[in-house]
Design brief:
The structure is a homodimer. By secondary structure, chain A is of the alpha/beta class. Chain A has 17 helices and 13 strands. Chains A, B: Keywords: Metal-binding, NAD.
Chain lengths: 427, 427
C-alpha cells in the first residue's frame, strides 16, 4: 500500500508536548539535544568560526527570498521562521533526518504550534498521491491559510512539500530546510516544485517562491560520502557551464570535505548561490538563460530513466556532461583543451570506470528516452533529435538567436558522443 | 476502480481522423453538424440577432483574458483558439456534452492536433487522482509545453482541467469552454482552480489565468431546467450582494428562459460578468473584497456537506443566503425590507418548501461543519464561530476595519437564523 510505504510508521521519537506551544505542558525552555556529534559540543566554536552565518535575500524574479545558512545555527533559523508570523508550522520531515529536526522543532514549539509529518524519501513515492497524503495530514493537523509547510530533507521532500504548499488552500507559505548538499546548494535555490508522473520525471509541478530557506550545514555532515555525489556533480556542472573561474574553489572544497566538512560545504554553497542567483533574478522560471543549468541533463535523464534506480542522479549527470562536451567538440563548438578539463574536473567525482558503468546501456533504449526529453517544448526540435545544452567554451553555452542555450542535437550525434565517453581512457 | 468510474469507457463517437490536422485523411472542410436543434438550422438567424458576440478582455489583476460569448459561434471560438498558436489541443470533455464538442473540435482539427480526453463529471471524482489521470493521458497523447488544455464542460471539468493545466510541465495554457450556466457566468470568471481533498471541498488548487474563455450559449440550452438552478442561484447572489440595481434584468432573464433561452443566458452572462469583473481587477485571488462572492456559502457549504450529494450547490447556497440575511437582520445590520427582498427574489428559484427541505438537518452536524469552514484563515475567528458574509444593505457587505467582507458569527446565531429560515412562511 502506497500510504504505508511512503509514511514512516514509527512514532515520532520526541515527546508530543514539545510540538505545541498552546499545550500548557509545553516547556518554556529545553535542553539542546543536537544529534550531530561534531556540532554543538566540543566543536561548535570551531565550526562557528569556520562558517559565519550567511544570510540575505535571494532575488528570484520579483520575489525576495530570505536565506540563512550557517553551522550550529538553530537559534538563527528559529528566529527567521518565527519572524514569518505563522499560525502554525506543518513540518514535512524525511524519516532519515528526524534527529536533525529535534533541536529546531522543539525550539519552534515554544512559540507556535508545530506538527511533524514524517515521510520516507524514495523516488518512487514522488507522486501526486504522496502530495495528497501530505495535504490531508496537514488539514487533519489543523493547518489553515496562516500555516506554513516546512520541508526538512533532501530534494524529494523539498519537491513534495513544495508542491503541497503550492496547492494547500491554493498556496500557503513554504520554508525549505534542506539537509542534503544537492538540496542545499542547488534544488532549493529555485521556484520549481514538482513530482513525477507515470509518464515521466518532474512533469507535474508549480512555480512557488519559498518564504524562507534555512540550512544548518552541520546537518549535511552526516551524509555518507557516496551520498554527496549528486550535490558535487551539480556544483561541477556550475563550474563547467557557468563559473569556470571557480574551479579552484571547487577543488579546495572537495579536498576539505573529509576533515573540515562545514568549511567545504560553505564553499560549495557559495559556489551554488553565486552560479544561480544572477540567472534567477532575470529568468525566475528557468525557461530561458537559466536552462544552462540543464547542462548534462538530457543524456543524464535518459541514463537515469533506463537505469531505473540503479544509477544516481549525480552519476548520470556527470556522464551526461561528458557526453554533452564530446558532442560540443564533435559539432565544432568546443576546443580540445576545454573538453579535457571536463574529464579532469569530473575525475574528482570518483566515478566508476566508464566501460563498466556505460557499456551495459542499450543504445536504442537511450534513443527512445532522448526522443521524449521534457525540454522539447522549449525550442522547436525535429523528431530525430533532442534538445541539449552545448558549450562553446567553459561557462559559455551555445545559444540560438533568442539567447536560448538549447540546441537540437541529432540522436545519432548524441549516441556517438556517448560511445566516445564509454570508450574514454581519460578518467 | 476510480479510473473506470471517472473516465468514460465508451469510444469517442467521432471519426478519429477529425481530430488530427497532421493526419493525411483529415478533411479540409466539414459539414456543420450541431447537436442543438434550435441552434444552427431554422433558428440560427434569430439567435444571432438575439445574441451578438460578446468579446473583449477580462482583466484579473495583471492578467488580460480574452473572452468570446455568442450563439452559433463555432467559427468565432475556433478563430480565437487558433490565434493562441498552440502546438496541440488536449480537450478534457465532460461525457455529457460530447455532442456539443463535435462541430468545434472538428473545425479545430483542420488546423492543429486535437486530442479529446472524455471524463465523467461526478463530484466524488474531483480529486487529485483524476487530475493525475488527465496529466498522464495528456502526456501519452503527445502534449508538450506548447500545448493547451481545453476544458469543455461544467464547473467540475473546468476545475479538474484547470488544475491539470496549472501543473502540466509547471503550467501550460488553459482554455475554458463552459457548457453550464454556473460555469459560464460564474466559475470560469476566476483564476481559482481546485479539487477536493478527503478533508474538504476545494482545499487543493492553484491560481491560473486562462488563455481564453469561450462559450457558445446554445450549449447551455440543453441543460434541464433543474440543472440551471445553481447558475441562477449564483446570479441571484450577485444581485443581492453586489449589484441590486440589476434585479429587473435578473427577473426578465428568468421570464425569458423557457422561450428565448439564448437571450436569457446573454442577460445572465452580462450580470455575472458585470458583478465579478470590477472585483477581479483589484482582487485577482479573491482574498479580500471579492470574498463577497462567498455570500451564502458558509451555511451553504455546511448544508451541502451534511446532505452528502442529496442537495445541489445552488439550493444549498440559496438557503445559505437566506440564513445569512436572517443573521444580518438579527445582528442589527440588515433592515426588514431588504430581508424580505431576499425571500421575494429567491422565490423565483422554485425551491422546495423550507420545512420539508431543512427540518431533516441535524443542527449539531451543521455546527461541526461550520466550525471548520474553509474561510477561517482569512480572518481571526474564535472557535465557536464561523466566518460569514453579512449584508448591511443589498449590495453592501458588512466589512471589518481592513475592508474584509467577512465577520465571525457565533455558531448559535447562525443556527438561530437557519431555524428562522426553516420556519418561514415567506417562500
Amino acid at each position: 500500500m502506497r500510504r504505508g510505504a511512503a509514511f514512516a510508521a514509527r512514532p515520532t521519537p520526541w515527546p508530543a508536548r514539545y510540538w505545541n506551544a498552546r499545550s500548557t505542558s509545553a516547556p518554556r525552555s529545553h535542553r539542546f539535544n543536537c544529534a550531530v556529534p561534531a556540532c554543538c559540543s566540543q566543536a561548535s566554536g570551531r565550526l562557528r568560526r569556520e562558517a559565519p552565518m550567511h544570510d540575505g535575500l535571494l532575488r528570484i524574479g520579483s520575489a525576495a527570498v530570505p536565506y540563512r545558512y550557517g553551522a550550529d545555527c538553530t537559534d538563527g533559523l528559529a528566529e527567521g521562521i518565527e519572524a514569518l508570523g505563522l499560525g502554525s508550522a506543518i513540518v514535512v520531515i524525511d524519516e532519515a533526518v528526524q534527529s536533525h529536526a529535534e533541536p529546531l522543532l522543539s525550539r519552534l514549539g515554544q512559540r507556535m504550534q508545530v506538527r511533524p509529518i514524517v515521510i520516507a524519501g524514495a523516488e518512487q513515492h514522488k507522486r501526486l498521491s504522496l502530495v495528497e497524503e501530505v495535504l490531508d495530514r496537514a488539514v487533519a493537523e489543523g493547518a489553515d491559510r496562516t500555516s506554513a509547510i516546512l520541508a526538512m530533507g533532501g530534494g524529494l521532500v523539498g519537491n513534495v512539500a513544495g508542491l503541497a504548499a503550492s496547492l494547500l488552500f491554493r498556496g500557503v507559505r513554504l520554508v525549505h530546510l534542506p539537509t542534503t548538499p544537492v538540496a542545499a546548494f542547488d534544488a532549493v535555490l529555485s521556484l520549481k516544485q514538482g513530482v513525477n508522473l507515470r509518464s515521466g520525471k518532474n512533469l507535474c509541478g508549480a512555480y512557488t517562491a519559498p518564504a524562507m530557506i534555512g540550512c544548518d550545514l552541520t546537518w549535511l555532515t552526516t551524509i555518507p560520502r557516496r551520498g554527496l555525489l549528486t550535490g558535487i556533480a551539480e556544483m561541477a556542472k556550475n563550474v563547467l557551464a557557468v563559473v569556470p573561474g571557480r574551479e579552484r574553489d571547487f577543488e579546495e572544497a572537495l579536498a576539505n570535505l573529509p576533515d573540515r566538512p562545514v568549511a567545504a560545504f560553505t564553499t560549495l554553497f557559495e559556489l551554488g548561490f553565486d552560479s544561480k542567483a544572477p540567472m534567477l533574478r532575470t529568468d525566475p522560471n528557468e525557461k530561458k538563460a537559466a536552462l544552462v543549468f540543464e547542462y548534462g541533463h538530457t543524456v543524464g535523464h535518459a541514463l537515469e530513466s533506463v537505469a531505473a534506480g540503479a544509477m544516481s542522479h549525480g552519476e548520470a549527470v556527470a556522464w551526461g556532461m561528458l557526453t554533452a562536451a564530446e558532442a560540443s567538440a564533435q559539432l565544432g563548438h568546443l576546443g580540445d583543451a576545454d573538453l579535457k578539463r571536463h574529464y579532469r574536473l569530473l575525475s574528482h567525482l570518483e566515478l566508476p570506470a566508464p566501460r563498466i558503468a556505460l557499456e551495459r546501456f542499450d543504445l536504442e533504449s537511450l534513443a527512445t528516452r532522448l526522443r521524449s526529453d521534457n525540454k522539447r517544448g522549449h525550442i522547436p526540435c525535429p523528431p530525430e533529435s533532442a534538445p541539449m545544452v552545448l558549450l562553446r567554451r567553459l561557462g559559455e553555452p551555445v545559444a540560438d538567436g533568442d539567447g536560448m542555450p538549447l540546441i537540437p542535437v541529432s540522436i545519432g550525434t548524441a549516441l556517438d558522443a556517448f560511445e566516445k565517453v564509454t570508450a574514454t581512457e581519460e578518467l
